[in-house]
Write a structure and sequence with these properties.
Its main location: cytoplasm. This is Redox-sensing transcriptional repressor Rex. InterPro entries: CoA-bd, NAD(P)-bd_dom_sf, Rex_actinobacterial-type, Rex_DNA-bd_C_dom, Tscrpt_rep_Rex, WH-like_DNA-bd_sf, WH_DNA-bd_sf. With about 210 residues, this protein is an alpha/beta fold. Helices cover about 45% and strands about 15% of the residues. The protein has nine helices and nine strands. α5 (about 90-95) links the parallel β3 and β4 (about 105-110).
């Protein structure tokens, strides 16, 4: 069964809600409560969870720690993923200093093509040349944060795939061509701003999307 990408995004939201509930000492919750917090319907919550199994008890609801543990397992957060940043310009450097990767993601490499940047210390490591990717990725790094300019993105992606990377978080405003077994998540700030400009000018469309 193919799971919609939107359902995965909602699972992440449910997990964050469960973490907040647990922090407040709440032991049980319901699809209605999760739906209210996530701004979806209770039916949608139950449908999203049903892709992966049967959770909760009718009339009783969900045990917060148990459902939280199950969602972390589904989302692959019950392990530690090795990350690298390719492209140590302003965005890459800002991400290197970001403190919120959490316990499931660990920065293990920083790479750039600029000789003037190579060797510079960053967050417990040093920037290395991209030529070292084939030596650094295998067995150590699974996910790359790609923060290079648009015109360099495909070549950098090719290098990462050849080195054995498992997934790419792409910040470049370009569609990457990679093997289907290497998932790519695109982070496009300009596209997000453009969507906002559309929904601000067309509020009824925004209401339909939220509904």
């Amino acid at each position: 069964m193919k799971v919609p990408s939107a359902a995965i995004s909602r699972l992440i939201t449910y997990l964050r809600i469960l973490e907040e509930l647990e922090a407040r000492g709440v032991h049980r919750t319901s699809s209605e409560q999760l739906a209210e917090e996530a701004q979806v319907t209770a039916f949608q919550v139950r449908k999203d969870l049903s892709y992966f199994g049967s959770y909760g008890t009718r009339g009783v609801g969900y045990t917060v720690p148990v459902l939280k543990r199950e969602l972390r397992h589904i989302l692959g957060l019950n392990r530690r993923w090795g990350l690298c940043i390719v492209g140590m310009g302003r965005l890459g450097s800002a991400l290197a200093d970001y403190p919120g990767f959490g316990e499931s993601f660990e920065l293990r490499g920083f790479f750039d093509v600029d000789p003037e940047k190579v060797g510079r210390p960053v967050r417990g490591g040093v920037i290395e040349p991209v030529d070292l990717l084939p030596q650094r990725v295998p067995g150590r790094i699974e996910i790359a944060l790609l923060t290079v300019p648009r015109e360099a993105a495909q070549e950098a992606a090719d290098l990462l795939v050849a080195a054995g990377i498992k997934g790419i978080l792409n910040f470049a405003p370009v569609v990457l061509e990679v093997p289907k077994e290497v998932p790519v998540e695109n982070v496009d700030f300009l596209a997000g701003l453009t969507r906002l400009s559309f929904f601000i000018l067309n509020p009824k469309w925004g209401e339909e999307m939220m509904g």
